Amino acid sequence: MSKSLQAIRGMNDILPEQTPLWRYFEGTVARLLDNYGYKQIRMPIVEFTELFKRSIGEVTDIVEKEMYTFEDRNGDSLTLRPEGTAACVRAVLEHGITGGGQVQKLWYIGPMFRHERPQKGRYRQFHQIGLEVFNLDGPDIDAELIIMTWRLWGELGIRDAVKLELNSLGTSESRGRYREALVEYLSAHHDKLDEDSQRRLKTNPLRVLDTKNADTQAVLVDAPKMADYLDDESRAHFEGLKARLDAVGIPYVLNPKLVRGLDYYSKTVFEWVTDKLGAQGTVCAGGRYDGLVEQMGGKPTPGVGFAMGIERLVLMLETLEQIPEEISRQVDVYLCAFGEAADLAGLALAERVRDQLPNLRLQVNAGAGSFKSQFKKADKSGALYALILGDDEMAQQVVGFKPLRGQGEQQSIAWDALAAHLATCVVQG
Questions:
Q1: How far is it, in rounded angstroms, from Cα 28 to Cα 326?
Q2: Is residue 230 left, alpha or beta, with left meaning phi > 0 and alpha meaning psi from -120 to 50?
Q3: Phi/psi of residue 338, nearest 5 degrees
Q4: Distances from the Cα of 348 to the Cαs of 73, 341, 343, 344, 369, in angstroms?
Q5: Mean pLDDT value across residues 399-427
Q6: Which of 12, 221, 241, 327 is the 20 to 30 A CA-CA neighbour of 402?
Q7: Confidence at 254, pLDDT banded by 50, 70, 90
Q8: Which 3 state secondary structure label does DSSP give 386?
């Protein structure tokens, strides 16, 4: 017997009962970004592998272990994008839209791919919404990104469940000085480090700060602090960011071990974390990458951005029961018609109502059926009201109007008055 077909491990179907919550979340974010003046960009999900090696860093976990890389028929090495920033930078460089100091405030949405060990909240195909801003170098734009996310958490009803962590990585020069001091300190405690941290000490020592190993964490207690190696410019930038967050009233925690897993970050880095999702605590993260555009072949261009994981934030909405009632109901009104003439009249009536109420979710019964079977389908749809059209209603040019969720008697509504009646009932209901 042949093996049944299944989705690839860590790559999941999003089923019809799940998509309303996804659409609600995505729509809420899109409206917020429109209000702040951000424009959407859409990039391919496949890029040349070299793009990610040059941007993310060849000695990062992503490039070393996690990328989906393959050779196409032309012999080119291609990779399913593991994150969005590098692809966005490639796009703005290719099309010249940041040239001449043009400010670009961009956002994107879509799947990313990393070959990780699948677990709740961490998948091999996952979805992100990301923002990237180019040609603004002050702490004001860093603050705007954080303020936007703070407003989003409020709109979603999850503000009390997230915490903001901040750090500054300084410029590449100050980070280089810190790197030397950290390597010297950790080398003196080499035998106390876990195996992964010993490897990172040779390739990407700042990532040791991000370890979850308790023994290595104990060693790090007395390690040099990045704040002591910051240059004056980075220190002033960081103070400016904190002052703006204080002015708006956004609480934050300084985390000197926050380094992020990508080589291109400089100055500001931040994470929004939660304790509601178990091990997968980061729901949104980002920072400044002023050297990345130049590193990828462009002119010196300041940049800052972040990405948020849609799976984790949707899971948070479910965990905290912050799901609006209207999105759990996908149908407002269900029209039941009995007989050939009623079927035809019902179709025409439904289209007239849709013309007048374009936002009404009106489902017309398909497949005929008895009175009992149609009402069973109406109830299962979750609709608030059923419309009934049979021989008696046809003769009087009315439609039966029956509440399905609560009190209220069935009544008859004239065809030409139906849209006005539904507008009142659905809004009030």
A1: 14
A2: beta
A3: -125, 110
A4: 53, 11, 9, 7, 19
A5: 89
A6: 327
A7: very high
A8: strand
pTM passes above 0.85: yes
The two tokens of residue 307 are 């990405």
How many residues comprise the chain?
Answer: 429
Residue 410, classed as helix, strand or coil, is coil
Across 225-239, 244-258, 260-274, 314-328, least confident range: 260-274
d(Cα 255, Cα 269) in Å, to the nearest integer?
A: 10
What amino acid is encoded at 208 in this protein?
V
Question: Sheet containing 77-80: which strands, arranged edge to edge?
Answer: 46-48, 77-80, 68-71
- And the tokens for 373? 């079977």
DSSP-H helix ranges across 251-323 = 292-295, 310-319
Report the C-alpha gap between 124 and 116 in whole angstroms: 6
Bridge partner list, 71: 77
Contacts of residue 45, defined as CB under 8 A and 6 or more positions apart, other chains included, come to 80, 81, 110, 111, 113
Q: What is the pLDDT of residue 285?
A: 95
Backbone angles phi, psi at 288, to 5 degrees: -100, 145
pLDDT at 429 over 60: no
Pairing of strands 398-403, 266-273: unpaired
Contacts for 401-410: CB closer than 8 Å, 24+ residues apart: 404/334, 404/378, 404/379, 405/429
The Cα–Cα gap between 259 and 167 comes to: 8
Residue-wise pLDDT for 149-204, tens only, equals 999 999 999 999 999 999 998 888 888 888 888 888 889 988 888 888 888 888 77
Give the orientation angle of helix 139-156 with respect to helix 19-35, to 10 degrees.
140
CB atoms within 10 A of CB 70: 12
Q: How many whole angstroms separate alpha carbon 50 and alpha carbon 248?
A: 41
